[in-house]
Please model this.
Amino acid sequence: TAPPRPVDSTRIVKEKERSGVGVLFLPEYRLATLAMAFIMFACTALYFSLLYLNTSLHIINYCGVGSENTHMSDLEKECQVLEDGDYVDLLVTCIIEIPALALAIGVAEYLGRLIASKVFCALASISLFFLILCITSVNTEIQLFVSRGIADGLLLAIWIYVPEIYYKG
Model:
């Protein structure tokens, strides 16, 4: 058997210096770290606001119009419960996350991570604009379905792009 190789102490020191959260705030990474933190916060806020909006629109019966009692106070509107059909609609909009993840991975592999992030960001902006129109409940449901899928794809594209920024092989 061959004798054990000597340990290179300078390599161990460099590896320890390059590990930990403190590395993210070194001068060469500081701007990228702050930018990625802001982008991740914005994408996460978009995703979770769409989750909240989905439930809120079911409670107020789409487009700010109460179900049958339009003279109800805000507190009474907040205390309404979801009906059986609302739970089915919420489930359907949650199912979009499975194909959205597969689509996001495919688009990121085909276009590249940076371009995929830009495409999903543009699509998210467009889908949110159309969500404002709010024509019918079916239209709003389809828009929520598409918007949540795009937001999920955007979040995944950003997550898989981040390691490429910091990797220094």
